[in-house]
Amino acid sequence: MPIITISRGAFSGGQALSERVASVLGYRCVSREVLVEASARYGIPEAKFTEVLETLPHWWERWQESLRLYRIVLQAAMCEVAQGGNLVYHGHAGQELFPGIRHVLKVHLTAPMAFRIEQVRSRKGLNEAAALQYIEQVDKARHRRLQAIFGAEWRDPSRYDMVLNIAQMSLETAAHLVVEAARGADYQPTPDSERDFQDLTILARVQAALIISPKTRNLTINIRVEGGEVHASGILAQSELEQEILRIVEGVPGVRKVATDFESPPIEYMYP
User: How far apart are CA 221 and CA 232, in angstroms?
Assistant: First the structure.
């Protein structure tokens, strides 16, 4: 069954809509559960995930691949949580976590700033100026984080299948639009899309296993998955690392076969 991701700016009604859609469809509604799954499965404190995903990136993170770990592990955890479909996810970067999967309906909620300010004032008791400052800080952090981790602009409407201005409609109307889209033929799983999703899951598992391992986390390894068969390639300075990569990949659930195509670096690279 379909997977629905609902993304939004700060105080744009994402949780309420997600819960309503899930209730009507009889789907699971998840958010922080994905971080809990990632923390438990890969040993990264949930608090660290929250810091990475909800605060401005440090200056050095823009130049290093220190955020790559969190992108890979978050996607792997999301794929595990989404097994079986029938899911509404309103959390971090949902629109970026299922690339190329046709039975994922990506929804984005927007609203005028005046509407959002009133939401903040009523919930947090702030005056108008403080509410505006708070929203701008949250949106700025989210923008820079998604740029740093995924290289994506979360406010780009082309990244979504549906964009709803919730200030112009009731919760019931918005939920009805999402439910009807999810029930439509365009977002029903097909054998091809189910295969693509399982390949994406295996890809995410393999990448997570490799980046968690101290022996392989700093290697640049190209991974491709087709029908459960994993193809790994790249350049290895130490030939014995290929056996370690094979050992890790073969132990990943769902992997049917592993093929490798690694090369040694050019001599001038090893001995400049």
Answer: 7
